[in-house]
Amino acid sequence: MAESFYEHLFGVRGKVAVVTGGTRGIGLMIAEGLVRCGARVYVASRKPDACAAAEAALKEYGDCEAIVADLGSMDGCNALADAITAREARLDLLVNNAGLTWNQPLDEFPEKGWDRVMDLDVKGPFFLIQRLLPMLRAAASPEQRAVIVNVSSVNGLRPSGLANYSYVAAKAGLNQLSAQLARDLMDDCINVNVIAPGPFKSKMTAPMYATEETERQVREQFPMRRWGEMHDVAGLTVFFASRAGSYLTGVVVPCDGGATTTT
Ligand SMILES: NC(=O)c1ccc[n+]([C@@H]2O[C@H](COP(=O)([O-])OP(=O)(O)OC[C@H]3O[C@@H](n4cnc5c(N)ncnc54)[C@H](OP(=O)(O)O)[C@@H]3O)[C@@H](O)[C@H]2O)c1
After folding, report:
1. CB of 19 shorter than 6 A to ligand 1
2. How much distance in Å is there from the Cα of 57 to the middle of ligand 1?
3. Which fold has domain 5-255?
């Protein structure tokens, strides 16, 4: 069957993608969107049970395999890159989504809360990109650029009002790293873009909707009066990965219902 114009613009069918932290929250939303659009998706996280559950859920929609890896360590980044290299000849899309935050008052903020966040939120993405570059280069051409999407945060764009010091530094660092890589990988035909989410319901934000009343109060502060949903973040990722997004690199797109742009 001839490719429809819609598929021509937004198609990711048959593309090979890796989504780190794809077993729950925003990563699972992105992975689901990609699988449902016909991509072959590898999700990765630390917990074997979470990997098995995500793989089973995503297989309902299409092609998915979960790989256990701790991406806060060099060994974990190497192991994931080796696993992908053993299974595929090329990688069209790498989504560096796995991340954690750490909240503690300034005067007592511990070194551990600095190192763990930096290791997972900025060092991990850098070395995973480095290790997967041969696979991304193998997929990339001027007609069909390979794509890296780094998931940062609106907290990397402006002060957050939270005691998440290492997180804001890591996410701002990831934004800047992405801009640098976008320039350096230009001639390799690899685009590097950033999604900076605003509020999405996930384990990370669970205290913000712990009770109905808390959820309502928090939601009332959002310009659109709603949380981000699967189609918001999956749609943006599909856009970046498809022909429609091919002329964009080095951009940071807040996916936050206007929170950074209108307030
Ligand atoms: N939710 C929001 O409102 C929001 C807003 C702005 C930015 N973000 C960003 O969006 C991304 C996803 O956040 P989320 O809210 O979906 O978080 P989440 O629900 O806590 O999910 C985090 C994911 O990362 C995995 N992960 C955690 N540590 C890992 C490690 N060391 N190695 C490999 N995987 C690891 C987790 O699985 P395991 O526990 O099995 O490892 C899980 O799949 C993060 O980068 C976060 O900073 C989220």
Report:
1. no
2. 18
3. Rossmann fold (3.40.50)
Residue to probe by mutation, ligand 1, list 19, 20, 24, most atoms within 8 Å of CB: 24
Whether 90 is in the pocket of ligand 1, judged by its Cβ within 6 Å, is: no
Q: Does ligand 1 have an atom closer than 6 angstroms to the CB of 11? A: no
18 lines ligand 1 (CB under 6 A): no
| pLDDT tens per residue across span 220-247 | 999 999 999 999 999 999 999 999 999 9
pLDDT in tens, 117-160: 999 999 999 999 999 999 999 999 999 999 999 999 999 999 98
> Cα torsion at 128, 49, 65, 36 (round to 10°)?
-100
Question: Would you give the end-to-end CA distance of the chain in angstroms?
Answer: 47
Q: What is the pTM of this model?
A: 0.98
